[in-house]
Design a protein that fits this description.
The chain is mainly alpha-helical and 157 residues long. It has a domain of 52 residues. It contains 5 helices and 2 strands, in the order ααββααα. It has a two-stranded antiparallel sheet. It is flat. The model has no long low-confidence stretch (mean pLDDT 85).
Length: 157
Amino acid sequence: MPGKPITVTGECAKKLLRRLGMADVANELFGLSEELVVLKEAKKELDSIVKENNRKIEQVEEKMVALMLEDEVQSFKRDGKTFFISTRLFASIPDENKEEVFNWFKGDPDLAGMVKEQINANTLSSWVKEQEDELPEEIKEKLNIYEKTSIGIRSGK
């Protein structure tokens, strides 16, 4: 019967894996761990670049819209591209009004189909995890349940 797992790090881990005849595994694991750290750091840097780029795009678009509206320019072409003002409407329901708004829509047969009851995926996942072996079979068979295994990284202190 296996005991409680222990954590072995750094040179100690390399020595232990070598003693167990797993030097190749140790080298591959450490190489992959270095690659994973580099990739995650690059992702974080790219996310920051994307965020800043999106902020700049918004600023440029605001200036262009203001200029086009001021001079009553509907659209223009430049370097084979057509630039035009596009307006999209976004609507959402604040949590405190959801029940009332949903009931209003449900009360109209033409609009009732727009109302979709929903459970947040993260909330559902947490609830399923809490149930462990007590998850009722009649609901378990109606859910898609899977686990995704990944590698967590903590910075050393």
